[in-house]
Amino acid sequence: MRARLAALTLALAAPAVVAGCYPEYSPDTSAQNASVGPSPLRRLTNEEHLNALSDLFPGVKVTLPTLPADATVAGFDNAAEAQQPSDVRISRYEAIAAAYAHALVGDSTGLPALLGCSDWSTPALADACARTFVEKIGGRVFRRPLTDDERNRFTARFHGWQIAVDFEGATELTLSAMLQSPQFIYRPEPAPPDATNGRTIALDPFAMASRLSFFLWRSTPDDALLDAAKNGMLTTESDVRAQATRMLADQRARRVLYSFHRQWLGLDRVLLDEHAVRTPEVDLGWTTATQAAVMTETQLFIENTLSQGGTFGDLFTSRRAWVNGDAARVYRINPLPEPSQWTEVTLPPNERAGLLTRAAFLAGYSHRGATSPPVRGNWLELRLLCQLPISPPPGVDFSQPKMQPGDGPQTNRMLFETRTKPAVCQGCHANLNGFGFGFEHYDAAGKFQTVDNGLGIDSSGKINGTDVDGAFDDALDLSAKLAVSKTVHQCATERWVRFAVGRAPDAVEAPMIDALAQHFHGSQGDVRALLVDLVASDTFRMQKVVREGSSP
User: Fold this and answer.
1) Please, how many CA atoms are within 13 Å of residue 448, restricted to the half-sphere of its CB?
2) pLDDT tens per residue across span 304-324
3) What letter would DSSP give residue 73?
4) Sign of dihedral through CA atoms 413, 417, 418, 419?
5) Are 531 and 246 in contact (CB under 8 A)?
6) 217 versus 34: which is more confidently predicted?
């Protein structure tokens, strides 16, 4: 059966992916001189794939095998250049498709709704029902109308399976084949056959619907978006802005708000096995449940802050938090909620403000038994400023510095200052330490501390390489400065563009990114406004025609 379905899948894929255009598509070529980068073929990420299935078939509960992890580029899992297929992935796609198809067809009460008909008792009724099913489900799964060739071939296969098995079996096998096909797994954006190589044209409306939905919802388009594409309501900038505004008001937009920031900032690093425990001196109570709790706390903070009118700056300065018992213990919130109860609280004013003082970041960028200011400083430079640190010279000692016999008491900061004092180290560590020392009030579990080894803590530092350079007192002061920095807004904008298009921005798109960043900063960090501006840009709405075997 696997070989049979694989052969069918490839055969069904060829015309739509290779031959060119969807029905009745006349591209707008008025923007042929727009400066846009390439439009690579993109596969659904694991997150997008499972979200799409969940949204296509709400309420269906199935046990699924785990897909191989998506490879990441610049921290993101949706980079087209890294989306290579594998035998394991293809096998898992088949198993997932089969599980969904079996669950849907096995539910006799829901089968008429799936089919779009309720009576298939005669050959004529069965034929009409099969055609309705192929048209209806095919259009939703492929996110566009089927071509005549696809429609005829799927219907013919349905009839063949009906003869070999029965009507229900044919339904299950046809649905399984659709859910494994490249038209579902990938997001083809074919240009019309007569489009000139190297020319920039407006994206096909149905491809535009998919770009919008997989960006803003991390999932498949809804009926309203597909209807807009069908009715020519995704062709202008104002059309796209209207749909994006609608979509960002939907609860599904919480997915992109969290997914982007989780990946950009590497916030799920705390879930790695190396962070499953803390040494007893740091936190006896730290468990895998604590790992999960501080990660969920960060997720709820991001989602609730940005979906409830908060700004980009609020991600650095807000003291709102949603905690359960495990997260509340780390933050010293009393009384402790139950482990399964998530309660909104306000964190202590002199200890916490925004993501940089949350345990997911602080514990994720520490060792199990000690903090590392260079590690935290490197994170800030790379993630928030989009600056690559200088590579260390050969032979550098990367071990945690420790007090030597006969030394007097020293703080962690003092040990790192001694280790990185040589001039050869300062080329990197002037910045790494300058940022990283700001977090010394937080131990390796992210708990707030006022003394280190019996000594008072100095958490002052210095910002370099931004528009807000200068000294800061502690992590709260640092966070407040970064919250209004043009440099940080510029970095966030560039990363949003990369995340939206699944590739590194092209050099010709630099002016567009600069304009988006300027507007983003001028809007006081209105993330939703940034996303609406982004999807209305030429880069998102246009494609450059590149024919196979040629260069534009």
Assistant:
1) 18
2) 999 999 999 999 999 999 999
3) B
4) positive
5) no
6) 217
